[in-house]
Amino acid sequence: MKRSVKLIKILSLLPLCFVIFSASLRAQENFNVIVSMAKGDLNKDLLADSVVVTQDTTADTSPYRLEIYFAKKGGGFQRNIQTDKAINEQFPNGKDGYRDGYGFSKVTIKAGVIDVFCQLLRGHFRHKFRYQNGNFELIGYSSRTSNPLGMSAVDFNLSTGVYLQAEEYDDSDKKNSKRSKIIKISPLPKLKDFVPYSNDLY
């Protein structure tokens, strides 16, 4: 009888221990600064889901965390994805290290597609993800960069495989160029494992 009472007491304390442990982990991570938020129906259930990007400003590299929450029909939200890899750290070499001109700008939702937009020193790039096949998959990548000679651009539709490259020159003696090719990627990259610019294509 005494053992049963002790067991009940121990079990009753488990939820409290879990809450304390979870709070301790959150305190260590310090992703407590919200830098961008977006709302929109991502899984076609006519409910407004949410994407939140937070930053750990206390860490030397100031990393970002991207989280996606699905709205529940009865109210509230359920987290679907949490990743600290989908957005490059603000200071990859530390706050006192070399700056590469990269900077996260914002996350938006349009027509059920998540758009992660980032600035460069002279240009920008963006990655687009859509919920399909039970995962958020990369369906589009584009970039625009400028230099003293002109501008270069890339548009890659991963769904169709169409990869477009364009170069425009300020010098009229140089000829602008546009190239197109088909690059099929299967399966498509999943947001939960995605790292930007981990290859030459996106």
Automatic annotation (TrEMBL):
Keywords annotated in UniProt: Signal
First and last residue of the signal peptide: 1-27
UniProt-recorded name of the protein: PLAT domain-containing protein
Species: Pedobacter steynii
